[in-house]
Design brief:
Layout lengths: L14 H6 L4 H4 L11 E5 H5 L8 E7 L12 E4 L3 E8 L2 E9 H14 L1 H4 L12 H12 L1 E4 L1 H10 L5 H24 L3 H22 L10 H9 L4 H16 L5 H20 L2 H11 L11
Parallel strand pairs: 2-5
Antiparallel strand pairs: 1-2, 1-6, 3-4, 4-5
Helix pairs in contact: 8-9, 8-12, 9-10, 9-11, 9-12, 10-11, 11-12
Length: 303
């Protein structure tokens, strides 16, 4: 039976702390990898983010340097997709979710992140913006923000090689562009279906919120946590970013039943304000200047 724990009471989260509460990495890892000492381990999820509760699962990510280091699980359940393996175990009644990232299977993600680098340094050479979603995006976020528990030097090496510090920039730029794409779709849908136009407009606003949060360094804003993350960020954001988030949340609410034309106009204005905000960041200014050249705003020119 699952039980509560005291891991969310503000104490330092280390391998020793987990062991004292019944989650012993020295007992877990040998059932998953043949050479535990070669692997890096991070604490991820709500406990690592400081949002944990006594009922939170313990989420771990294991960095496996060589595919041959992965062994058949002796207990717990194992799920696999094309890149990651997952195990579920109960340690003294505490649910432990373990994601295993084998170096050979995740190497392509490194290639994607390398392709993103020109967005920072020379955007005119940006050949494409990879669409990183789902497990791959979760991997990069967890690698960037997780708390190292074992082999911190390996964790640091993977962080450098996978260019995880580019993740906020990637999400900022990608979702900034998608605001405009969804706005154009919402405008075109308006002629045939107001309901469809409203739906797509809401997606455009969600893209805006994800982009604004990424500018603030928040890379965990999945759709189900978007409102929570936005309100949380507003408590510490500066005046400009707080105003952008507040406007985005206001538009999102109004898109449900407010005047559709007003909502679309406000989304366009928000997008322009986001561009001005991003242009104030040296690392984003060049990318924004280049990308803005491909955007034609339409609603502001309509009577």
């Amino acid at each position: 039976m699952k039980r509560a724990h005291q891991l969310s009471n503000g104490q330092p989260l280390t391998a020793e702390t987990l062991r004292a509460h019944g989650v012993d990495l020295d007992r877990i890892l040998p059932g998953l990898v043949s050479d535990p000492a070669s692997c890096g381990v991070l604490l991820t999820g709500s406990l690592a983010a400081g949002n944990g509760t006594p009922s939170s699962d313990v989420d771990l990510m294991v960095l496996v340097p060589h595919r041959t280091s992965l062994v058949t699980a002796r207990e717990g359940m194992r799920f696999k997709n094309s890149r990651f393996s997952e195990a579920l175990q109960y340690c003294d009644g505490i649910e432990v979710n373990i994601e295993l990232a084998e170096r050979g299977r995740v190497a392509e993600i490194m290639t994607w992140m390398t392709a993103i680098a020109p967005a920072l340094y020379k955007p005119s050479e940006l050949k494409f913006v990879p669409i990183i979603d789902g497990p791959e995006l979760r991997f990069l976020h967890r690698l960037r923000t997780g708390v190292p528990l074992l082999n911190p030097s390996l964790v640091a090496s993977w962080r450098d090689e996978f260019l995880v510090e580019l993740l906020p920039t990637y999400l900022t730029v990608r979702h900034f562009m998608e605001v405009h794409e969804y706005l154009e779709d919402a405008i075109s849908h308006r002629a045939t279906s107001e309901e469809s136009s409203r739906h797509v407009a809401r997606i455009a606003v969600e893209e805006a919120l994800v982009s604004i949060l990424a500018t603030l360094g928040v890379t965990s804003a999945s759709r189900k946590w978007l409102l929570i993350e936005s309100h949380k960020a507003m408590t510490t954001a500066g005046e400009v970013d707080r105003a952008l988030l507040a406007e985005g949340l206001s538009i999102l609410a109004d898109c449900a039943a407010g005047p559709l034309g007003d909502c679309l106009t406000r989304i366009e204005a928000l997008h322009q304000r986001m561009a001005a905000r991003m242009s104030a960041e040296p690392e984003l200014a060049r990318a924004v200047e280049f990308l803005q050249g491909s955007i034609t705003y339409v609603l502001e020119h309509q009577a």
